[in-house]
Prior knowledge:
Shape: globular
Number of helices: 0
CATH topology: Immunoglobulin-like
Oligomer: single chain
Number of strands: 12
CATH architecture: Sandwich
CATH class: Mainly Beta
Strand order of the largest sheet: 8-5-11-12
Amino acid sequence: MPNQYRVVCPKCGKAANVPVGPQYTCSCGSVNATPQGGLLYIYRMGNFVGAAIGMSIYLNENPVGAIANKETVCIPLGYGTYKLHMAHGPSRKCNDPVFEISAANPVVYMKAHIKPGAFTNTILIDPCAASEMPGV
């Protein structure tokens, strides 16, 4: 069980890490319910390429903050189908996996890493098991 969630405030749109609980208070002052249904864990694998730059996270084209090198984030989500996209600096190339959060599949684990290229890097995101996630 994580000790904090990554959420996006519906009022101001700011992404933040908040303590686990049924609701949270954003820095804008609004009190919001934590999304219920399932969890998405994302682990950014350690890599020397681009280690100093955060990787932006997008769910269904909406920004959900960034993830640092060798970091794991936990995002609470309602039931539904989601497309995960990640961007790194000027590179927007990503394999964009689609996954579903449901009663039968409430927790999804993904790991991301950078594949260096000749002119641009590509972000590869792969499903994985909980045992492959540090800190889970």
